[in-house]
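Researcher: Next sequence.
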Amino acid sequence: MGCDTGTERPFWLICTTHLLLEVYLLVQVALIPVYVREFQLSLLEASLVATVPNLVQLLMNFPIGFLVDRFSAKHLLCASMVIEGISAVFLSQTSSFWALVLWVSVMRISSPLYHITGLSQISRIVKEDKASRSIGIHNAMGSSGVAVGAVSLTLFMTTFGWRSTYLFWAIPVLSWGLFLLRTPHLETKTYERRQQERKVGLARFSYVLTFSFVIFLVGIGLREVGTSGVSTFMTTYLVKVRGLSEALSSLIFGLGPITGIVGALGGGLLGEKIGAKRALHIATLGCAISLFALSLTSELYLLSLLYLAYSFFNHGVWTPMNTLVSQMAPRSERGLSFSAYMFTEGLMQSVGPAVAATVMEGSGISFVFPFGIAFVIASLVTLQFFSPRRAT
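Model: Next structure:
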């Protein structure tokens, strides 16, 4: 797997935390058709469920990046679980759209808190030659959480209602947070001191924001605009254009992360064989091709199969992207490097749904596919021009 014997348990504790963190990831966007109906919203108003929480996550990335390099991973991972669990309890009780937006926004704080901490820690404890495979396993665990959460939403929508999904998963999330607080296996701090003179404050960014890393961030940012628009309005497309029920559209949407589990593992293994940069190019190209095929498909079974293929490639990009961040980041600034990476993702994820909604208000929901394709291709072109370098 790539960890030393003494670090295998911390690795799996982090991966299990990732699984539980992601159970709510697609629930919000899968429920957009329900929000539109229940709260009488326009597409642009409904997009706020994705846009506002992403902005909150965006603003939290850099403060958390500075904290991660200085505090115990155990306490930060526990905090991510507590924030997510408490937010889920309040979401299960909400009857107001703006309260919904508020608590989804609070919940999203747990994402950078976990990811910057977890990925920084993994990049330190795994062997360098096995980093791609280890990050692939980590991402596959997250994809498993996404899939379980989305599929469970379908079950609850047909029985106790969508709010029950939040309440059900809050119990294991909060319980795991308490377990992390008591475990002795995550006592380490991610902060490391330099032997030589160390820059402080904003000057630390000079270690991180190299020209190549900035090009890399631009490339993944373009991709996020397109794919976040597609993800946000996929269930809306299935309901409004294809005439599927809300439960069936959520089921199809929820099956995507199941193939994403394979995609995450495949991205890790491919990156180990041919290099993370080439693996990222192949997965991004696969996203563009599958989105193009989706835009031409009318049969339900073909649409479902092609969406699964798109999800495979879409999840496959995360492992090489995470690996490249750890490769390009100085070892002592991994937390700040991952926060810059996640800041870029959060910014573009905030912009994407609103831009896509604005375009579709005038062009129709089906235009979500050309929208996604254009940005993914722009990302693929941009990503040709960065050169990963080894961390110093």
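Model: The two ends are 24 Å apart (CA to CA). The chain has one domain: 5-185+204-385.
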